[in-house]
UniProtKB/TrEMBL annotation:
It comes from Solanum lycopersicum. Belongs to the EXORDIUM family. It is found in: Secreted, Extracellular space, Apoplast. Keywords: Apoplast, Secreted, Signal. This is Protein EXORDIUM-like 3. GO terms for cellular component: apoplast. The keyword Protein biosynthesis does not apply. Residues 1-30 form the signal peptide. Coiled coil: none annotated. InterPro entries: EXORDIUM-like. It comes from the Eukaryota.
Amino acid sequence: MDQCHRTYFPATFYLLAGICLLLLTSPVNGWRPWPNQKPNTTDLLYSPSKKYEGSSDLIKLKYHMGPVLTANITVYPIWYGRWSKSQKRIIREFINSISAVDSKPPSVSGWWKTVQSYTDQTGANISGNVHIGAEKTDRSYSHGKSLTRLSIQSVIKSAVTASTTPPLPINSKSGVYLLLTCDDVYVENFCQDVCGFHYFTFPSIVGYTLPYAWVGNSGKLCPSVCAYPFSVPDYMGRGFKAVKSPNNDVGVDGMISVIAHEIAELSTNPLVNAWYAGDDPIFPVEIGDLCEGIYGSGGGGSYTGQMLNGEDGATYNMNGIRRKFLVQWVWNHVVNYCTGPNALDQ
């Protein structure tokens, strides 16, 4: 698909085809407490005996021969809007914790080992080295406070082509361009169908094909949807109670799991032609989608699974360098079920 964009057609085709693909592509549509939503795919696919941590013989995750991120991964954060220093520290520490092998177990780096188990066609594994590179901050909301999927690409273009400040490096082989929108920015379909998504930029818009992800801060707009289980919608009833967030910021703590979800999927399927289930690359089901909402042993359906509680009463399931985080599990293609470092059988 990417080769067709580069080789055979004029620039006008790039733009039209790119726009069509972007509009058709399904973002992360895993389990969230959407109003009137039917049970998630684990409820529909699995009998009671198959609900343990999302395991199923019915899921066939396949490798479609596309590239994955096997070289050292560099994450380039783009802070869109007004972010506090403390919020930035929480997110930076999570990203840095992916490669912090000396963190106390269960650890973020232990969670990443499942992602590392994925390979390309040469047998090379996803890189275990994930670090933060150059960053950009856009406190002036230069593209407005309401973004579409296409204008998200324009924000990234501004970051990599900046002239008044140093631009972000162009790194199409191992770069992850992470656009983070603050809590007063609305992105197309945010809170309604999606909390974050990943894709790749179009040369016709940005000038390069760059893997990117967007994640929004739902703290003001919809914490009960995108920061669940730190906030719970009223319609779920008294049986569902919110848990305390580990870093005392419901919006940012909710973002952490979505960021993890997107970085894991972007690393294993950066151009939407590598690891996914199903036959349609326009609507791929990826390693994070298959485990949406599962944070511990026994998770499935609308049950998060068994998590941990800190001395301060906060709920988490893995340790970073100095902080604790609650991060969803990811699909393990070797054992064919969702896995995480806090599994009770480890």
